[in-house]
Amino acid sequence: MLSSSRTSLWFQRRLPWLWAAAAAMPILFVATTAVSGSRNIVYYDEFETALELLLRINAGLDWRELLQRLFALSNEHRTVASRLIFAVSYWLTGGINFHVISAIGNLFLVGAAAILVATAATTERRVRLGVLLAFGLFQLENFEGFIWAGASIDHFQVLTFAVAAVAALARGTRPAWVLGAACGVWATFTLAHGAVVWPVGALMLWQQRRWAWLGAWGGVTIVALAIFFYGFAFNPGHHLSTVSFGHAARILIYWLTLLGGPLTLGAAKFAPWLGLVLLGGLGYVFRRGAAKRETIPFFTALYALGALALVAFGRSELAGPQITSRYLVIGDLAWALLLYMLIEAHTDPLRPYRELLWLLPALVAFNLAADVKFLPTIQDFNEMRDRAATSFMQYGEDGRGLLNLRLHPSPGHAERLLTPAAERGIYALPRVSRAREFPAAEPSTRMVAALDELVVNDRAVTLGGWAMLPGERARRGEVFVVLDGKNSRYIFSTLTLPRSDIAKYYNEPRWKLGGFRAVLFRDQLPAEDFTVGVMIVHRGVAEVMMTASRVLLAPGQAPAVPLATKP
Q1: N or C terminus: which one in the chain shows less Cβ crowding within 10 Å?
Q2: Chain centroid, CA 36 distance in Å
Q3: Does residue 98 form part of some domain?
Q4: What interhelical angle do 98-119 and 2-37 show, nearest 10?
């Protein structure tokens, strides 16, 4: 009997660590996916928010113009916070690296979760909240922020400072109030819905009867919003000036859609009904005293409701059948906090993890379903970005190539910024093919490989195709191109590109990542003729297969093209 009691006590003491290990699993998976999907590639909005700003700073500007550019409007937002991060990156390093920006953006979401967990009163409460946040926030429904710096640096950052503002106000001290006001200002000038911190903070202070601080909070609110709305104008394409009953109804429905969207994995059709469930749940916990007992979770959830209401007002006219990933994270946060408050209202202190254990299968199922659904979307997003970048490297123009994929939607805009950025050493697209050295490779008799792209111009040599080994899973980074010349051999790394068509043709799902593209700049190659081969380095063993295709770079030669190759 004594031994059984000791075993039970030992197990209970280690339960928090077991729960922490469970919570770490979705976080580690998302971290791995984010790292593999991160690219140092400037893409879409980043041209304006980052590259254009840094080019102007590099050209020289006084403090007045710097402030004007930092506070400039962009689609109803003043993204001062992220612009400052870009500027600091330039001042410290002379350039910008979007790998680093993406990592900073993702750490903001970790920071928001960490603040919430840290403010829970006991170990048991921290465990319960931490598990809910881990499974609710760290799943691939929120893929845009995880793999694209242009989303994470704003949409994760605004959540962190909104959470920090609420947590600081809840402490009830003068220094904490100052910190809360500072976080409110930062949130406001990260994204427009960061301004929802001000009415939420006012409600907190009113509920706590802190009248003097409420007055001061109101003063800071007026100043912050006055600066935000100075010279404010709506984007005409968003149709925000339209006022009608029908427009108000669309906003309401889209707001409910955003609230319920996380549980439908972004599908808008049935999401409004789940949005009503979320509102009902928050009303239930409010009536049970959550505003006083669970101040930080409740008012953070209230911020999420207000933030999504503002998003609905600004984006309802642009809504489609699928909710944009960057907005789902706000709803995910609201749902996680609602579940936490419901659990806290019914937890038996003698069995602190019973309700969480009952809920765990649903949390795991939701997390896995989101990962399974959105992992292909991530792969497609990365492929489009990679192909657009390599096509730009190939031609020096945006939108060239077979698929006409673009780094920026406006014709000529990428060229106007990338060319001077590279010349001034601020930023250049990273080379995807670098010279490598390997021990002697064995000729392969089993490799399945072909070239279906060989383009030679004055700028670069582009080689693309597929290469796989029977019975083996195609993996990133295993394929290399080989150029055999009369006097030398060159081996270059390639960029992995998904090839679903190849996997389908060969009826081998493991070969989806068998596609590759190499872009070899002419300064990487001597002026001689080469035969093209493909090398796979798998488990430390290098196998090579030469093709009939040739690259003719010797003076007076016309570059040959490969035979038409189809799977």
Answers
A1: N
A2: 12
A3: no
A4: 150
| Among 58, 127, 531, 77, residue whose Cα is nearest residue 353 | 127
| Minimum mean pLDDT range among 8-12, 90-94, 350-354 | 8-12
Domain housing 544: 435-552
Instruction: Note the maximum CA span of the chain.
Output: 92
Could you give the CA distance from residue 73 to residue 91 in angstroms, rounded to a whole number? Answer: 23
Q: What is the CATH number of the domain that holds 529?
A: 2.60.40.10
What global pTM score does this model have? 0.90
Measure the CA–CA gap between 47 and 371, rounded to whole angstroms: 29
**Count of C-beta atoms within a 10 Å radius of residue 399:** 19
What does the alpha-carbon distance between residue 314 and residue 55 come to, in Å, rounded to a whole number? 30
d(CA 101, CA 89): 9
Q: Which of 384, 395, 386 lies closest to 521 in space, CA to CA?
A: 395
Spatial separation of the C-alpha atoms in residues 342 and 360, rounded to whole Å: 14
Tell me the average pLDDT across 30-35: 94
Would 113 be classed as within a structural domain? no
Two tokens, residue 92: 């410290």
Check if the beta carbon of residue 167 is closer than 8 Å to that of residue 337: no
For the cut 70, the answer to whether the pLDDT of residue 13 exceeds it is: no
For residues 400 and 218, which has the higher predicted lDDT (pLDDT)? 218
Contact partners, residue 5, CB within 8 Å, separation at least 6? none
Query: Into how many domains does the chain fold?
Result: 1
327 close to 258: Cβ distance less than 8 angstroms? yes
Quick check: is 422 in a domain? Answer: no
Place of tokens 């309700």: 355
